[in-house]
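Running this now, will post back.
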Amino acid sequence: MAVIDNGICNLRSVTKALEAVGAAPQVVRTPAEVAASGASGLVLPGVGALRDCVGSLRSAGLDTTVRDWIDADRPFLGVCLGMQALFDHSEEGNVTGLGIFRGNVVRFRRPPEYKIPHMGWNTVRFLQPGSALAAGLAAQGESFYFVHSYHCVPEDAALTLAGCNYGGEFCAAIARGRCFATQFHPEKSQAKGLQIYRNFAAIAGR
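Update: finished.
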């Protein structure tokens, strides 16, 4: 399992979570390291500002690696900024994303009683029946941990794997083929989050 270090991710938390479910994470920083890893799955975590995340990927040439990996339908998991980076554009700093999926990343527009960033535990509902990433999780509600001020709005509603409500519905996870991404942080979400990583490791191992 290759985990991209883009310099602004909670790398230790993600690798420890993968280790906890029996995966063998390898930290990679260049396309050559991804190729040399022989990994069957690729994970893109990220925290902080999307501009830094996307800029780091482009400067290392990993934007092409990620795009080619997803185009080949190889197992991919994006986490937080690793999800937002896959879309066309973000309002956060007027950033052009990788454009792998059509859609935008927009700031929460909520009544004053809803604090931004959206931070803490919230209920996620899985909307794609039988999704391998959601195996062993209740479709109608599991709690995961979020920290974000912006959320993804896919053009294609069928891309949405999971939804969440915070003063209104938003996309909490996406899936197409063997490409998955979550806005929430599985590595901060205790047993249910570990189940996400366990499921992804199983997908990558098939």
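The first strand starts at residue 2 and ends at 4. More later if anyone needs it.
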